[in-house]
Amino acid sequence: MKTHILFSGLLILSACAEDPIGQYPVDSRPPQPITNYEVINFSGGSTITYELPDETDLLYVKTQFVLPNGEKQDIRASVFSNVITVKGFARSQEYILNLVTVDRSRNESEPLEVKIHPENAVIYDLIESIHPTVARGGFKVSWENEVRENVVVTFLKKNDEGKFELIESFYTSEAQAQRAIRGQEDKPTTFAVFARDMYNNYTDTTEFTLTPLFETKLDKSKFMEMPRWPSFSLHSWGKSTLDVIWDGVEVAGAVAGQVYYIQAYSDGVTTAYFTMDLGVKAQLSRFRMWGRSDYYFRLHNPYDFYLMGTNDQSVALNAASTDADWGGPMINCISYRPSGLDSSQEATADDLAYAQAGEEFEFTGDEPAVRYIRFRVRRAWGGSIGLHVAELSFWGEPITE
User: Fold this and answer.
1) 67 in Cβ contact with 202 (< 8 Å)
2) Residue 71 in domain
């Protein structure tokens, strides 16, 4: 270490060795190794319990090893613990670890060989649980990850040149995940999927071929607002016209005027609703909803709600028309939260990714083709009587008459 001191016009230089961190060595006698160890194997790793030697200056137990992906690991457990856990292994097989005790004088014991046999990493069971099914505009998949490890599930598509290109990657730790891959043409296509864990272990790539069903995204420029129930009070934080929910701003709400916001109502109306014209009669296949982004899974974001449809313009124009006039619910929806937490708890990374992508709901295909939609909320996430929505998108097959 060098020190530069300016004193009375003189520059004085001094040099000294770097100071060691921690206690200076007081002896050169190595500690004894651990004893009576037991190994518990799990997916991708092992836990080793042991007895520490009777050493007054013992500092920690360590093991150093290389993962199958080539990454070096240095794992240490303090003297206040008798457990060391190693993770990051891929396929189930036997590995040998050397466990060493270290004292405060930095003396190390003779290494003790410990054999471990981790179970397969989570990604291998996960990839085997994926069974794609045909859907409108693509396909649907689900997978299991019971230990809730952080994983990335990636889907590819073979292009016209015979090369695979990325479609979408999902970053998740959900125990039971469901996803849909959309935007695909209705022709036979070869897709593929692989999974990766946080230790950069990869599964093999699994190919599958299917033909997505036809659908198209409805043109939002044709959407129009229908009359609102006069007793609905719109909150000043929202926009006063319904066109805000088809303006293309999906992750919205942190800034005033980005959401449609019904605050309160009276005159015997017990649930909030709004009515819209799709601009075209369509056999609907699905829709996607984005809630207010600064209140995901809270406050007035819809939790239990339903959509009704009609082709009768007089029913749609009448803000006082009843559910019976509309023919009852066309689709019943319950909002899903990946973490399973209630509205009083902060959103997790999985929750945020899911909400920001828009929550998707599918029609069965047996519903009649309709032009007018009424969106009615039974209960919001916060148990309130209000309603706020940031964006809606619809897909289906327009009917030409």
Assistant:
1) no
2) yes
